[in-house]
Amino acid sequence: MRILLVEDDTLLRAQLRTALHGAGYTVDEADNGRDAQFLGETEAVDAVVLDLGLPVVDGLTVLKRWRAEGRNMPVLILTARDNWHEKVAGIDAGADDYLTKPFHLEELLARLRALIRRASGQASAVLQCGDWSLDTRSSRVTCAGQPVALTAHEYKVLDYLMHRPGVLVSRAELTEHIYAQDFDRDSNTIEVFVGRLRKKLSSSSASARIETVRGMGYRLVPP
Ligand code: CA
């Protein structure tokens, strides 16, 4: 999953970046409203953390423009303390959730997980497909109750598919959602990650499997 992080405070942005990477997300960053708007319009982000007080163009304006253009990715806004007007304006402009500074990183991560879950129609923090299980809180994956060790990229591919069981996902879409904008992307690596996932996650009759749809992409198929 890919997060667009928009925050002009360098120190806070670094803390957020570290926390997001630690939680298994790919992160694109902007430190002003103009760059943020552009990234939100051109990149396949799964959620946005948007500070409202930004240079060049303020966060509220950016959010309104995205929504006016029909961009519906989940947006969590960061607001200044004791500014309830900002929260109301943000929610009215199309924010899905907000956090007031200062906040605990754990709370931000929990709210983000919830936003991403809701956007893909999942209710639980533990995604289950047959005997495969992925805990979005701890990034732990188990197969038939046994822990499975995945690399960061393997996890990102599985996480994306587990949020969309039964849905055909193209290689291009997977590539877009696991690599940041400035990363040298190669959609052939997706095939490698899927191959490794198939090896690591056994496929008994109770298991899900990752089906290849020739020329189209992949689909997570429940047992
Ligand atoms: Ca700010």
TrEMBL record:
Instruction: Identify the keywords attached in UniProt to this record, alphabetized.
Output: DNA-binding, Phosphoprotein
Which SMART domains did the record assign?
A: REC (SM00448), Trans_reg_C (SM00862)
Q: Where is the OmpR/PhoB-type domain positioned along the sequence?
A: 124-222
Is the keyword DNA-binding assigned to this protein? yes
Q: Where is the Response regulatory domain?
A: 2-116
Q: Which domain of life is it from?
A: Bacteria
Quote the PANTHER family the UniProt record gives.
Answer: REGULATOR OF RPOS, RESPONSE REGULATOR PROTEIN CARR
- What this protein is called in its record is Response regulator transcription factor
Q: Which organism is it from?
A: Acidovorax benzenivorans
